[in-house]
Design a protein that fits this description.
The structure holds three protein chains of three kinds.
Chain A (H helix, E strand, L loop, with lengths): L1 H29 L2 H5 L1 H24 L6 H6 L6 H6 L5 H22 L5 H25 L23 H14 L2 H14 L4 H32 L10 H26 L3 H23 L13 H24 L15 H31 L9 H21 L10 H7 L1 H17 L5 H24 L7 H10 L2 H25 L2 E7 L4 E4 L2 E12 L3 E12 L3 E12 L5 E4 L1 E4 L3 E10 L5 E9 L1 H19 L21
Antiparallel strand pairs in A: 1-9, 2-3, 3-4, 4-5, 5-6, 7-8, 8-9
Helix pairs in contact in A: 1-3, 1-7, 3-6, 6-7, 6-8, 7-9, 7-13, 8-10, 9-10, 9-12, 10-11, 10-21, 11-12, 11-14, 12-13, 14-15, 15-18, 17-18, 18-20, 20-21
Chain B lengths: L1 H17 L17 H12 L17 H15 L4 H12 L14 H34 L1
Helix pairs in contact in B: 2-3
Chain C lengths: L22 E2 L9 E2 L8 E6 L4 H15 L5 E6 L6 H9 L5 E5 L3 H6 L6 E5 L5 E6 L4 H17 L1
Parallel strand pairs in C: 3-4, 4-5
Antiparallel strand pairs in C: 1-2, 3-6, 6-7
The chains are: A alpha+beta, B mainly alpha, C alpha/beta.
């Protein structure tokens, strides 16, 4: 019964989205207040209906209702409750339902918190959001219906893939979707602005919180995915340039560029075409990612078991929405001419370079991801484009970007003085160079690139702090005045400082863990010891244990270093009952300078076990760094200035609205 | 109806169990060569060879049977005296370019390798044009 | 368009090239394995199989049929068996269509042919050159429409 309610709600949502997609847009064109006002209640109703549908599906999973096809294929009575719930989105149909739910959440959010928007703009934004919802709901209802029944219902289900039965992975999709589905809102804003024929600083200010939210969530989602890969896949890797990883990374690159481009639009009424273009591209890349993952055209760790008909449908949605967006973009060309002029060496110039480098990076990742598909479809053979390609293309592009990130914030708007800026950065440059050379000398003379990477990270960190120090005039004016400046710094500038510093830490972590990982593979008997990087790993014993839906052998390691350091690591090799699939759970201990990482493998005939022991340098810096980036986005988001509308005289209802 | 759902079961199970990499133990202690230089070369070569029965992993990362057999093959050929290039060529001549994770530089991949450079050049030209137009417009304003 | 393709299905890199050098020992119960030299002088069908391979079981009847009618000699590569008795036991239970069977636990034979999954089948001409590859099981339709005509053509050369 509940499943039928859910199904009904889904179809109702389709109807409401049709209303939301048409009437507000017509209303905006004809200045019909009543129709424009329909946007908000429609968006809210759509959210309510999709929430009901999602709740119904969740209920089916939680109660193990195997008469629902999806539950039968992806769940099992023995599964722990958390994974029964996360199983809702651990498959194609359920995750698509989550996709449209989040689309509706963002639509409703604009309805609730967009009261300071111009009514025509708001109506148009909600209209486009409704249009997107309509397209995807059609897709779901006709090709990927989560509520399909399975008669007769089996007694038990097929279980969720054991690799997905993990807390990190349970939260990775929702966070990721909040990210790249969030770019649907910036897309809607862009299209709405094009329809209005007006792209101005006010628009940029309205768009900014949505961009920040989507970007923040996406950063978090990607980081969570990497963190999961790190501790689950058994050897400490965290990024593979897998097509589906790229599918989330490309919108991130475009989204980062969008975030920064909108700042120029807001402050200087410039870079209009760039900003609109990026808003369209960011969401287009999100949709492309959705297509790649679910159509079966690529070989990937993540690929859902999907079929070509679904692929064709999404491709159609993509072509129609992005095609019309670009057509609109071309038509509105004249409106996109900005008034702000600026010198190449200026804050705008730096941000323009930023746009440019991030866009080239995104385009290159896109090229590499699609190339095998492109050749195969044209029958020109099969090639693989793997990590070696992406690394050799991406890293050289990021280097100038990071260098500019240091200087840019110190340049003035319109015309900046590079010499003065560089003088202020003397310390940053010095520390970076000395640091790089020292590390090269001390750690490993073979890895010049890695030392360079650390140098870049140091440059970014110190220059970001220098910029902060400069803004608060640290040590140049009395401390009381500096303190006053600190207290009056807008939150968005704290956001910037945190995010840039976080990136610096993350870069250091990425460089170190890739270049200087120490690995030892051997067979160990209980009592044996191996020393890595000064840490002594002793295998205490290996026991057989029983989990809720698996059996495992657990290896216990004592790790010692000198007198003071003594910890225990537990590593498991599990076999899940239903799928008979083995997984590893590594034993990990994080220290400031790196992670101790232990994996237990198969036994050999003589009572020994294969063990893989690692020291992964600076890994936690990646997680802390990305966390700071997300925190920065959050703090920027909380900046009051986002909540005040452009029309100064207008009273914001109820005071603070968000 | 019953048969199709049953078939669907098997297909989804089969596909879902192949959609993720098996637990990666990859290189086995018994595979490790005694000569550390050769072993280092073997690891380096393995990282560039695709595991053909996995989803997007190298033979160095995967514990699939074929990956293991290829790792052992790579080591055998190194012991026999092949250069890195010869070992890779041995595998590529049997499996095609698909087995290379770093795409070869050939006519067919020209667009792939030159692509980023072309994007960058397009960007640079647009930037130059943008600033040139700006300064030209500013000069016009000054003259007026 | 090309959307229905399987991204993992590999065309052969060895078409129209001679079979690379390899040698396989016999499986238990057979006297002779085979090597690349054994292809000279006749048209051969090489079939990669394993007792663990479901689709191989489905293809097996067709192979038995071919072998009974002596249409073309079939050489079998018994690939990645967990133990030496698995292959022979399977052949005993389901019948042995192979003129020669090589034991290939370490994939040396499979790698020589560029094999990535079972079943895969190849047609080798009289000079030992690989002329045809098929991934997946040979269906009756495929045999009648594609494989058998190629065999006949190769026999006439």
């Amino acid at each position: 019964m509940i499943v039928e309610i859910g199904h009904f709600a889904l179809v109702m949502a389709l109807c409401i989205s049709a209303v939301q997609a048409t009437l507000p847009l017509f209303g905006a064109n004809t200045n019909n207040r009543a129709w424009m006002a329909l946007g908000s209640p429609a968006a809210l109703l759509q959210l309510l209906l999709l929430a009901i549908a999602f709740a119904a599906l969740t209920h089916a999973f939680v109660t193990s209702d195997f008469s629902v096809n999806l539950v039968a294929n992806n769940s099992h009575t023995l599964k722990p409750m958390l994974y029964k719930v996360s199983g809702v989105w651990g498959n194609h149909e359920g995750s698509m339902l989550m996709w449209v739910l989040i689309l509706a959440i963002y639509g409703a959010a604009v309805a609730i918190w967009g009261n300071n928007l111009r009514p025509t703009l708001k109506a148009r934004v909600l209209g486009i959001q409704g249009l997107l919802g309509f397209g995807f709901l059609l897709f779901i209802i006709f090709t990927s219906n989560p509520f399909e029944r399975l008669i007769p219902a089996p007694i038990n289900g097929q279980d969720l893939n054991p690799l997905l039965q993990d807390p990190g992975l349970a939260f990775h999709p929702p966070l990721l979707y909040l990210g790249y589905v969030g770019f649907s809102t910036t897309f809607s804003f862009a299209i709405a602005a094009l329809l209005e024929g007006r792209i101005d600083p006010a628009w940029a200010r309205w768009v900014r919180p949505w961009t920040l939210a989507a970007w923040g969530f996406l950063t978090g989602g990607i980081a969570l995915g990497s963190w999961w890969a790190y501790y689950e896949l058994g050897w400490g890797g965290w990024w593979f340039w897998d097509p589906v990883e790229n599918a989330s990374f490309m919108p991130w690159l475009a989204g980062t560029a969008l975030l920064h481009s909108a700042i120029v639009l807001e402050k200087r009424d410039s870079l209009k075409s760039w900003t609109i273009f990026l808003a369209i591209i960011a969401f287009a890349l999100s949709m492309l990612g959705t297509f790649l993952v679910r159509s079966g055209v690529i070989t990937s760790v993540h690929a859902f078991a999907s079929d070509p008909t679904r692929g064709v449908f999404i491709l159609g949605l993509l072509v129609v929405s992005v095609g019309s967006a670009f057509a609109l973009f071309a038509w509105r060309g004249p409106v996109l001419r900005g008034s702000g002029v600026f010198h190449p060496i200026s804050r705008e110039g730096g941000l323009l370079m930023n746009n440019f480098l991030l866009s080239v990076a995104a385009a290159s990742v896109l090229l590499g991801t699609l190339y095998p598909l492109f050749l195969d479809v044209l029958d020109l053979g099969k090639v693989s484009v793997g990590a070696p390609y992406f690394n050799s293309v991406f890293v050289p592009l990021m280097t100038p970007l990071i260098l500019i990130m240091g200087i840019g914030p110190l340049l003035n708007w319109k015309r900046g003085d590079a010499i003065i800026a560089l003088q202020k950065l003397k310390i940053a440059a010095a520390i970076a160079s000395i640091g790089a050379v020292t590390i090269w000398f001390v750690i490993d003379k073979a890895t010049v690139l890695a030392a360079f990477g650390i140098g870049l990270a140091l440059w970014l960190l110190i220059s970001t702090l220098t910029e902060l120090a400069n803004r608060i005039q640290l040590f140049r004016i009395p401390f009381f005045d500096t303190w006053r400046r600190i207290r009056h710094q807008p939150r968005s500038s704290w956001g910037m400082t945190l995010a840039h510093a976080g990136l610096a830490l993350a870069i250091a972590g990425m460089t170190a863990s890739s270049a200087w990982r120490v690995e030892a593979i051997q067979t160990m008997k209980p009592g044996d010891s191996v020393i890595i990087s000064g840490f002594n790993f002793t295998l205490r014993n290996v026991q057989n244990i029983k989990g809720p839906n698996y059996l495992a052998s657990r290896g216990v390691f004592d790790v010692r270093r000198k007198q003071s350091f003594n910890i225990t690591l537990e590593a498991e090799k599990r076999i899940y009952a239903v799928s008979r699939q083995p997984t590893t759970e590594a034993g990990i201990y994080s220290t400031f300078l790196g992670d101790l990482y232990a994996v237990i493998g198969d036994p050999d005939a003589k009572g020994g076990f294969i063990t893989r022991l690692y020291f992964n340098p600076l890994v936690s810096w990646m997680w802390v760094g990305t966390f700071l980036m997300v925190l920065g986005a959050g703090i920027s988001l909380s900046d009051r200035r986002h909540r005040v509308g452009a029309s100064a005289g207008r009273k914001v209802p109820g005071g603070v609205t968000a | 109806m019953k048969f199709t759902s049953l078939a669907l079961f098997f297909i989804v199970v089969a596909l879902s169990t192949t959609s993720f990499p098996p637990a990666t133990y990859a290189v086995d202690p018994s595979e490790i060569l005694d000569n550390p230089l050769l072993e280092k070369r073997a690891r380096h070569i393995s990282k560039d060879l695709r595991c053909l029965v996995c989803q997007n992993q190298s033979i160095d990362d995967s514990d699939a049977n074929l990956a293991r057999d290829l790792r052992i093959l790579v080591r055998e050929r190194l012991i026999m005296g092949d250069t890195d290039y010869q070992v890779i060529d041995y595998v590529v001549s049997r499996y095609g370019d698909f087995v290379l994770l770093r795409p070869p530089v050939k006519a067919i991949t020209a667009l792939l390798w030159l692509g980023p450079l072309i994007f960058a050049l397009i960007g640079v030209f647009s930037l130059i044009r943008y600033f040139w137009r700006q300064t030209a417009a500013a000069k016009n304003e000054d003259e007026i | 368009m090309g959307l229905g393709r399987n991204p993992q299905e590999l065309p052969s890199a060895l078409i129209n090239t001679p079979v690379p050098t390899f040698q396989l020992p016999p499986i238990k119960g057979q006297k002779k394995g085979f090597s690349n030299l054994d292809f000279l002088g006749q048209v051969t069908l090489v079939n990669v199989f394993g007792s663990w391979c479901e689709a191989c079981r489905l293809e097996h009847d067709l192979l038995m049929n071919i072998s009974k009618k002596k249409l073309v000699p079939i050489f079998g590569i018994d690939w990645q068996e967990p133990n030496p008795m698995a292959g022979p036991a399977w052949l005993k239970r389901h019948g042995n269509p192979y003129t020669l069977v090589g034991n290939d636990p370490k994939s040396r034979g499979a790698i020589a042919f560029g094999v990535t999954k079972a079943p895969e089948s190849f047609l080798i001409d009289k000079t030992g050159v690989i002329r045809f590859k098929h991934t997946g099981r040979i269906t009756k339709a495929l045999w009648n429409e594609t494989v058998w005509p190629i065999v006949q053509e190769l026999k006439m050369q």
